[in-house]
Amino acid sequence: MRVLGLILAGGKSDRLWPLTKVRASAAVPVFGKYRAIDFTLSNMVNSGIRKVGILTQYNPRSLMDHLGAGKEWDLDRKSGGLFILQPYVGPNREVWYRGTADAIFQNMTILRRGEEDHVLIGSGDHIYKMIYRDMFNYHLRKRADITLLVKELDETYNLSEYGIVQLDRDMRVVEIEEKPIRPKGNIAFLGVYFLNKELLKELLYATAPQGRYDLLLDIVIPNLDRLKVYAYRFDGYWRNVKKGIREYYRINMDILKKEVRDELFYKNGKVYTKLKDLPPPKFTSTAVVENSLIADGSIIAGTVRSSVVFRNVRIKVGAIVENSIIMENTVVEEGAVLRNVIVDKNCIVREGRVVEGNGELPVFEKRAVL
Amino acid sequence: MGNVVAMILAGGQGARLGVLTERIAKPAVPFGGKYRLIDFTLSNCVNSGIYRVGVLTQYRPHVLAKHIGIGRPWDLDRKDGGVEILPPYVGRNESDWYKGTANAVYQNLEFLEENDAELVLVLSGDHVYAMNYNDLIDYHLLKGADGTIACMEVPLEEASRFGIIITDVEGRIVDFEEKPLRPRSNLASLGIYVFNYEFLKKVLIEAENDPNSSHDFGKDVIPKILKENKGSLYAYRFDGYWRDVGTLRSYWEANLELVLPVPSFNLYDPNWRFFTHSEEMPPAYVAPEAKTSISLVSEGAEVYGEVFNSVIFQGVRIGRGTVVKNSVIMTRTEIGENSHLENVIVAENVKIGNNVRMGVGEDAENRLDPKIYTGLLTVVGMNSTIPDDVIIGKNCVIGVGVKPKDFKTKKLESGDYVLSGEEW
After folding, report:
1. Pairwise CB contact (< 8 Å): A297 & B283
2. Strand (E) or helix (H) holding A128
3. Mean pLDDT, to the nearest integer, of A31-46?
4. What's the predicted TM-score (pTM) here?
5. Contacting residues of A for B73, CB less than 8 Å apart
């Protein structure tokens, strides 16, 4: 089966401000060395998808820098490979993407060209590991028009922030409520669509020119009666970084649990990312590190507890970092104390500075001097 | 500056590294948590702007060839130039194994021709150092030399391990002695040469036609040039860090030097980066009950025990209650719980069980090869498995691919060894 992968990575996400001041939510750094998009992109590559289009719009520089020619994902290909699909000025039109469906509609060429029979549409800001092949087989077996990836969410998720689906006994989707105030169930749509390419083209032509631009609201939901939309269940770890700073923080802390690390890092293929060839992390004689993830190039001389430390970070003697996320190239100078904070890239935390996020989560934006 | 082509001699077996080089060539020996020895020379080349590199292989080239690939990690995947692996091949003679370093370059003169070499850098693939070859080349051109040898002052008592250079006041080499019993100077050759191509070609052809030649730069070609006054050779003094980690002790020491607060060899210098074919692994994880200090702990490592004064490579697992001290643990080795490892070098993909003690007890001479296995170090070869509850002394050797059934006893006295029952 030939599948075209499309990743929606254009989101602005005010809820991750200021982490998204300089980058799209798909490019938000996670787990010491990755960016959110690495997960969906690696899932696609690990599932044998050899052609992937990335739909970008909002501040794409860091995303483009990260993806490059797709080399790290083996997507630097003579045929297929990685396509960055940005909005553009055409002879007759000058419009930003007005929604998910519009974004794909404006890039109809990638659907027209190529030998693919099916399209997998995913999102650039979801953190999960999955090989999609069983879902493809399920789609064929069910003779579905569209298959949606769903998951039963437990109480750690705020259900009213997700699309909640109702299924019949055959797993056919009978109803979807987008962000319901009173959710009727706990099965959520995970933003992953699988469908026949020709069908997607038809649906887009039938809706986008009429000013309906959302894939879920304007295409899937109004057609639930007419089309056979099935749900495929995913039972693994799944989180959406875009849901807010608190959720972003929580996801990063989840990786300190062995079962989450085992699932995200070691099951269903590797997670690929842009490599930097930095030397191994170094722990000096004064280092105290407990329950933490420490990325390459970092030198730890202070105390780090229950934290995620990105690449090339310096934690100097006497500094204490607890329950925090410290991104690339940040320097925490002697005697500084950080508790429950998120510090973006290239920051300097000055000597002796104490920042404790009691109950809240202070976020320091890129290049801040604390 | 003319067109520079680097020839990296990477065929060496490195016999004094014992089981570490039983399956791989010395340049492929892992070093410093994620690198292999050849990475340092390759990185020096690209950092010096030299993008035409031949790697001369011979002994067990598979791992080395896989590591280098098309040279992508070093930006040596080039349309023009780049890196090329140059193995020996069958020529007019039935087999043309490289007879020595000079012969290896001689057999690849065609490669140098194709690359329009004007200057040839002859380098070793198994040294740990950071050198800007442009300084060497500038000196060579300034002196108008035919050949220039990089050298370094070493302690006089160690001088007999090296090729020793005697120069005049201008820096011109007047004499060269390979590993002399009574060294007349402490200026040691680093095995790093730059030659004018036409000159090199001439002397290599002469050496090839000389039935008495040993086909080695240090033993034969350099002394001969000087003796017969064939050309002008100069000595370029290098005062940076340089190590030939040729023995287990020096290999172990050079690794452990990296963990010092201010190491003499800086892997973290942003202006002189070392590149490698890294494996894609997540960041290192250190557990709540773990203790880690004075160590490098590479990506993909998960530490639940204690690591002290050690270099831990990528993907290594260290179980609860286990203590690793003064040791080098290579890629993907797994150590169980409540074990104790001290002064050991453990190669890749080794499985060590629970309650294992290694590197303990009195000193005793190794019974397999006391010249190689010395320095109170216990060494474990790649792909071996050490079962639970085994006690292993100092100066011990566990061979490559050793299985639990190869252990006839639960206690190995210092100096003892276990080799694999299977032949390769």
Report:
1. no
2. none
3. 96
4. 0.93
5. 277
